């Protein structure tokens, strides 16, 4: 509960800093998109990824299916990746790595 409260306070503090900061070049009423954005590193510091709860989802997060492994193998080999854009994945994979 304390971490949630701390996260809320940090978020509100960052929002207040972004909204209350005045730029002398701009009129007082308008906000530009640049004044609202924050850096990715700062955002990742207080926004955490939600953990998956079911065992089924955790299993498929760690282990890839064979088709996905073949796609990655083809993508990592530049001639196969180029040819898959031209004629399709299955034909390109068969040409370079044999039947799947």
Automatic annotation (TrEMBL):
Q: Which GO terms describe its molecular function?
A: calcium ion binding; hydroxyapatite binding; structural constituent of bone
Please list which residues make up the signal peptide.
Answer: 1-20
Which key words are in the record?
Answer: Biomineralization, Calcium, Disulfide bond, Gamma-carboxyglutamic acid, Metal-binding, Secreted, Signal
Q: Which Pfam families match?
A: BGLAP_C
Q: Which GO terms describe its cellular component?
A: extracellular region
Q: Where in the cell is it found?
A: Secreted
The record's principal subcellular location, in a coarse class, is secreted
GO terms for biological process, alphabetical: biomineral tissue development; bone development; osteoblast differentiation; regulation of cellular response to insulin stimulus; response to vitamin K
**Domain Gla, which positions?**
52-98
Spell out the family assignment given in the record's similarity comment: Belongs to the osteocalcin/matrix Gla protein family.
What protein name is recorded for this chain?
A: Osteocalcin-like
Provide the taxonomic classification.
Eukaryota, Metazoa, Chordata, Craniata, Vertebrata
Encoding gene, per UniProt annotation:
LOC108492335
């Amino acid at each position: 509960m304390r971490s949630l409260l701390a996260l809320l306070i940090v978020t509100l503090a960052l929002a207040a800093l972004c909204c209350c900061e005045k730029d002398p070049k701009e009129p007082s009423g308008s906000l530009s998109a640049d004044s609202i954005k924050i850096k990715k590193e700062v955002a990742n510091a207080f926004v955490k990824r939600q953990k998956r709860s079911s065992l089924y989802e955790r299993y498929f997060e760690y282990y890839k299916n064979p088709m996905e492994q073949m796609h990655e193998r083809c993508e990592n080999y530049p001639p196969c990746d180029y040819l898959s854009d031209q004629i399709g994945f299955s034909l390109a994979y068969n040409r370079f790595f044999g039947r799947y």
